[in-house]
Amino acid sequence: MVNESSHSHQRHWQTAGKLKRGIFFAYGLLIASTVACSGNLQLVAPRLPADYADIGPAAGGACGLQFLGLIPIMSRSTLSRAYEQALANSAGALSLRDVTVSETWAWTPLGPYFCANVSGIGIKRR
After folding, report:
1. Nearest partner of 63 among 126, 115, 4, judged by Cα
2. What pLDDT band is residue 118 in, cutting at 50, 70 and 90?
3. 59: pLDDT confidence band, cut at 50, 70 and 90?
């Protein structure tokens, strides 16, 4: 014969087990989303040489999409691609000085769309 007290304890332990599984699942999702959205630091521009000459203003931009908010499509390299485009737009530039960086983003039905813009003064070695 099973009394009411043993059923109560049994339900308590079943509920506690479900709660623990839920907490572990939530922590797992948190860790997975944090790791998935991280990346390595990128060196965008080399150090300026000791002796350089200005070429003129330069600007460039690049964009990428975070498909469904989960899958990066060219969104992790927007800054370095914008810098490379700015160099390409300044004929013969080795690097940029006085760099300004701006980022914009917008929501689309496919996910967030990110753009980076880089401007500065192109330089070359003397």
Report:
1. 115
2. very high
3. very high
Let me know whether 45 and 25 are in one domain.
no
Q: How many residues does the chain have?
A: 126
pLDDT digits (tens, 9 = 90+) for 16-28: 677 778 787 887 7
Distance between CA 80 and CA 83 in Å, rounded? 5
Verify that 57 and 27 share a domain, yes or no: no
Burial of 59 (C-beta count, 10 Å sphere; 0-12/13-18/19+): middle
**Does 49 lie in the same domain as 17?**
no
CATH number at residue 83: 3.30.110
Range of the domain at 34: 1-38
